[in-house]
Write a structure and sequence with these properties.
- It is found in: Cytoplasm; Endoplasmic reticulum membrane; Golgi apparatus membrane.
- One of its GO terms (molecular function) is SNARE binding.
- Keywords: Cytoplasm, Endoplasmic reticulum, ER-Golgi transport, Golgi apparatus, Membrane, Protein transport, Transport.
- There is one protein chain.
- The chain is built from 24 helices and 43 strands.
- By secondary structure, the chain is α+β, with helices and mostly antiparallel strands.
- The radius of gyration is 30 Å and the shape is globular.
- The chain starts with a strand and ends with a helix.
């Protein structure tokens, strides 16, 4: 009997096949988990109770997150008993289980031993290490102090019987209950050989096909073993997902006996085996993945582990996006035992070295000489996000509340896990300058309990990220209260677009969320059009009064004590004002915008104390100080003259920003554009004051999507805890200095950065230069941020990172952190745009890639400088060319006559401030297929909402009957093929057919069917999956719909050709040809 879908009145579906009725209602997700996947490890030392709410506390609006991202990985046959993973339990694959091997301290306040010759534990002899371990296996064996139990060793591939590897897996079993939407059919069931699936060109059979077989490991996504070769058609690597005990292996792909291919991740094909593209030998990928995880926990062996470089040919190499999403930095192989029987770090805490989400280096091994660094052509830099938001499963930053701060007398380094105690523990040796310092008298004493404590349980000796409560000697003045000045455009365009009403309503609803635990927060509201509108809110009053100042050249403040008021004392009048603000100006015809004068008035209000100015403007400033002209010219877009539009139009805003920075005043710009707004000029205010720019092109609050996005982001930002009056300095070991700085701050001196405020999740990059040869086996970088919390405390956040040194060129390449490298190069490209032309920035990216890859080829391969048909690089760098292609094709840098200068300037502002977790998808978007996703996707798993496996960014994966999701962290696109069956359109959009569906910006409806709820869960997960306040717009893109929207969505598929720019394979060919033509 034919298979079909029958609709019941209750909108539930049943599949009818023959005489059997199989229910097809998948479990409805009960919640949308919104956790973020990060490489965070638990803090093993006891944390003192925090005084007040620390910086980096959980966001109130994002605290209902159930877990990290979980990508669905379909299991395959061969993973059970006797298969490639014989004897490995899922629990043993997690990084946290390394503690069971005895290599880490158990949780709790367990005293660390004094390191003396009598108490030192001798290292395990090298001959006792487990033989045959893969990369990282020897290190684990050295760390284990007793013979391990008979179980698989982490970092090593378990023995695999040869006869079992050569046996083909059993044919796939029919899977029922998974809805599939196909062309010319109502639906079909994946894996059912009796039902015919439509043919697809997903993989396309082109030279750039992708097979999900590369290994990757992530605590959120599971582990895939490339050595488990599956030669059946459509067989990929072996996947399994944590949290699915008892699930029998299954396979999505073409089965035996002519079974139709399930529409899983593209057309099935034979999985490449060891020795094929992307494989460095049997089990190398799995061993390297485990080694990376162990390296993040700094579990080393009895001697320094030399990182070996693995060379990969990029030509024809399939890259799997899932590997990029879960790729950790290279392991940090610190020397555990130095001459004199001294350890690089006495602490065995898993948090003793910096988590990459706080601080990471472009190279996880520092060259001993500057000549070696120059020879490698690799830039050395740090990428910092000292104040990142925390998710529910993230450990809180430990706070040292006893005001006992031990610092080196010479270099002023804060004590950290990498110092050495000498003379019976009475003194400690600085890990940067080797100076001997006295241990503070109260270092081993609990002042609250009036009792001795274990020194080695102190937070600063176990955690790389720690926060000290500063004593009075760190204060120039007592901590000041947080001041918020809201400067709101009330001109005609701002009122008619609904910006004023939306901002006032959001602020009114967020008053209880503003940081005000100590009751000292003050607030002021100023309206701006051709005049300045001050609002008097005296304490105890229930109604506000408006004071208008028309003199813009000599701005003065009427009743300043009643304009800037205490949030608690003036609450009634403030609520009355916000509820009536939009109505006060509803009949206005004033089109003037005296933004510059308004900023000067706000500065006068807070200059004596410091604070935050939040400016919301809906039109180009056109009157008074800082007036701007509309200079946009469509004729120069895409030409060499376009770069002038990205330069500030006037020096007024930069000069004003520097004045603000000196007075500890930070400015955030919220720009709502119905026409040209000159983002390039106005974004200079946040750039020099430690603020942030937010841009809403074509904003109209009548569209619920626009109002929701602004309200979400505005409410989140103003409720975030912020650090005020901040200065940041990065110290490093002898012979190293900081040479260049990138980010939103003002450089006060050669190495001191002034930040009037430090927003959450804002990133900075600092380039490093080696001045003198380094003889030490490791170096230390320490970032210190002295700031005032919005809760009235002066604190110092310290982030410490230790990296080994090397004199080996190959070890430098093996330790490149691709994510940090891409972040730095994006910063440098934007800086080049501001100093020169867009074309120069694109050429600089290309030339840097050529230098790096050409030098690698000349020094690391047998072909040397001669011509070669291959394009080789280190295995850990294989994603760098793709990320740089994404940067060249990004709207911030791409050559195009269709990109408005405001959009380009805003994109460049994001490129320089987004943290790595947001920047990578901004350069390399994520691409999912939804119409044929496995039934587990979109449901709640043990680690949150299960996401499909990402696809390569190529249009050859698009199917005419399919539904796809593309997102870059700022926007979400749902691509619908023109041949989509009506049932799919009805189930997702509640529209009877494709022809009746309207494309564009929309809110996805939640319907009474499981597939709709799964799609909504995935969209919700994607929106909340990363750090930061951004709320992505959702656009529905029809294959034959609006050409501009269609082109925008397709521009995110960076592996395709676009507007004269090459495809990924063509880009690799260009790199190869230019390297062959150049001598290195």
């Amino acid at each position: 009997m034919a298979t079909g879908w029958s609709r019941a009145r209750t909108r539930k579906y049943e599949l009818t096949r023959g005489m059997h009725r199989i229910p097809c209602d998948e479990p409805h997700p009960t919640e949308v988990a919104t956790g973020r996947s990060q490489f965070n490890f638990p803090f093993s030392a006891p944390v003192p109770p925090a005084q007040g709410r620390p910086m980096g506390a959980h966001h109130g609006s994002r605290a209902s997150i159930s877990g990290p991202i979980s990508s669905y990985s379909p299991p395959v046959h061969g993973g059970g008993p006797g298969g490639p993973f014989n004897g490995i339990q899922r629990g043993h694959m997690r990084a946290g289980s390394v503690a069971n091997a005895g290599a880490t301290r158990p949780h709790g306040a367990v005293p660390m031993p004094q390191f003396s010759p009598q108490r030192q534990t001798p290292p395990v002899p090298e001959h006792q290490a487990s033989p045959g371990a893969g990369p990282g296996g020897a290190a684990v064996a050295q760390a284990i102090r007793s013979p391990p139990p008979p179980q698989p060793q982490l970092g090593a591939i378990p023995p695999q019987p040869q006869q079992q590897q050569q046996q083909p897996p059993p044919p796939p079993q029919p899977r029922v209950g998974r809805r599939q939407y196909a062309a010319n059919t109502a639906a079909y069931i994946a894996g059912d050989p009796n039902l015919s699936a439509p043919s697809t060109g997903a993989a396309g059979g082109s030279s750039h096909s992708h097979s999900p077989s590369q290994s990757f490991f992530s605590p959120a996504t599971g582990f895939q073993d490339p050595s488990a070769n599956n030669n059946s058609a459509g067989g990929g690597g072996n996947f399994f997902s944590p949290g699915a005990p008892g699930a029998q292996p299954d396979q999505y792909g073409a089965g035996a006996g002519g079974a139709a291919a399930a529409q899983g991740y593209g057309r099935g094909g034979a999985a490449p085996g060891p020795g094929g593209p992307g494989f460095a030998g049997a089990g190398a990928g799995a061993a390297q993945a485990m080694s990376n995880q162990l390296g993040q926990m700094n579990l080393g062996g009895g001697q320094k582990v030399q990182a070996s470089v693995s060379t990969t040919n990029l030509i024809g190499l399939p890259l799997h996006p899932a590997e990029l999403m879960s790729m950790p930095p290279p392991p940090v192989n610190l020397p555990p035992h130095l001459p004199g029987n001294v350890q690089a770090s006495f602490s065995t805490s898993e948090t003793r070295n910096a988590d990459p989400s706080y601080q990471r280096a472009t190279i996880n091994a520092v060259p001993t000489t500057n000549s070696l660094l120059n020879k490698s052509k690799l830039p050395l830099a740090l990428v910092l996000t000292p104040y990142r938001s925390l998710k529910p499963n993230d450990p809180e930053v430990p706070v040292v509340s006893d005001t006992v701060i031990a610092r080196c007398r010479r270099c002023r380094t804060y004590i950290n896990p990498f110092v050495t105690f000498i003379e019976g523990g009475q003194r400690w040796k600085c890990c940067m300058c080797n100076l001997s310092n006295e241990v503070p008298q109260l270092f081993d004493w609990d002042q609250e309990k009036n009792a001795p404590v274990d020194r080695y349980a102190r937070a600063e000796l176990n955690s790389s990220v720690v926060e000290f409560i500063a004593p009075t000697e760190y204060m120039v003045r007592p901590p000041q209260p947080p001041l918020y000045i809201f400067l709101i455009d009330v001109s005609y365009s701002a009122v008619t677009t609904g910006m004023v009403a939306t901002a006032a309503r959001t602020l009114l609803e967020s008053l209880d969320r503003l940081p005000n635990d100590d009751g000292r927060t003050k607030i002021a509201i100023i309206g701006v059009d051709s005049c300045l509108h001050f609002f008097s809110l005296p304490a105890g009053a229930t109604e506000p009064s408006m004071l208008v100042v028309g003199d813009l050249d000599e701005v003065f403040l009427p009743k300043p004590s009643d304009i800037l008021v205490n949030l608690v004392e003036a609450r009634s009048a403030l609520e009355s004002l916000l509820s009536r603000l939009s109505d006060m100006f509803k009949d206005t015809q004033n089109v003037g915008n005296a933004l510059g004068a308004g900023l000067q008035a706000a500065f006068k209000l807070v200059s004596q104390v410091g604070g935050k100015v939040i400016a919301l403007t809906s039109s180009l400033p056109n009157i008074g100080p800082g007036a701007l002209k509309n200079r946009e010219d469509s004729k120069v877009l895409g030409t060499t003259k376009e770069s002038a539009l990205l330069q500030p139009q006037t020096g007024f805003y930069k000069s004003f920003a520097i004045e603000c920075s000196r007075s500890q005043v930070s400015v955030d710009m919220w720009l709502f554009a119905s026409a040209y707004t000159d983002v390039a000029t106005l974004s200079g205010l946040p750039r020099y004051t430690g603020g942030q720019t937010y841009f809403y092109p074509s904003f109209n609050a009548a569209r619920s999507e626009d109002a929701l996005k602004f309200a979400h982001e505005f409410g989140t930002v103003i409720a975030d805890p912020i650090a005020l009056e901040a200065v940041m300095r990065v110290r490093a070991s002898k012979g190293i200095r900081m040479s260049a700085f990138h980010g939103n701050f003002f450089v006060r001196s050669t190495d001191l950065l002034s930040l009037a405020a430090v927003p959450m999740d804002q990133s900075y990059a600092i380039e490093i230069q080696i001045e003198d040869p380094i003889s030490a086996p490791f170096v230390v970088f320490q970032t210190a941020v002295l700031h005032t919390t919005c809760y009235g405390e002066r604190r110092i956040r310290v982030v410490t990172q230790a990296l080994p040194t090397t004199s080996s060129l190959s070890e430098l390449y093996a330790n490149v952190d691709t994510v940090a490298m891409a972040t730095l190069l994006a910063d440098k490209a934007v800086e080049r745009c501001m100093q020169a032309k867009l074309e120069d920035a694109r050429d600089a990216i290309m030339n840097k890639l050529i230098d790096i890859l050409g030098t690698y080829k000349a020094t690391m391969t047998s072909s040397g400088s001669g011509a070669s048909p291959q394009l080789v690089c280190a295995e850990n760098m294989k994603f760098l060319p793709l990320l740089m292609l994404g940067l060249i094709k990004h709207i911030g840098l791409r050559q195009s006559a269709m990109i408005p200068s405001d959009l380009r300037a805003y994109a460049q502002a994001l490129l320089t401030t987004l943290p790595s977790q947001l920047l990578i998808p901004y350069l390399h978007p994520v691409f999912y297929s939804l119409h044929n996703m496995p039934k587990e996707c979109g449901t709640i798993g043990d680690q949150g909402v299960v996401l499909p496996m990402p696809l390569p960014l190529s249009s050859e994966r698009l199917e005419r009957h399919g539904l796809f999701l593309i997102e870059d962290g700022q926007n979400v696109f749902l691509w619908l093929g023109r041949d989509a069956v009506p049932q799919l359109v009805l189930d997702v959009f509640d529209v009877p057919s494709y022809a009746e569906l309207r494309g564009g910006k929309m809110t996805l409806p939640v319907l009474d069917n499981a597939f709709s709820q799964r799609v909504n869960a995935i969209v919700g997960k994607v929106r909340e999956a990363r750090r930061g306040p951004y709320y992505a717009h959702l656009y529905v893109v029809k294959e034959d719909g609006d050409p501009a929207l269609r082109q925008w969505a397709l521009s995110l598929l960076i592996e395709d050709r676009m507007e004269g720019l090459p495809s990924y394979q063509q880009f690799l060919g260009q790199l190869k040809d230019r390297i062959n033509d150049k001598s290195f």
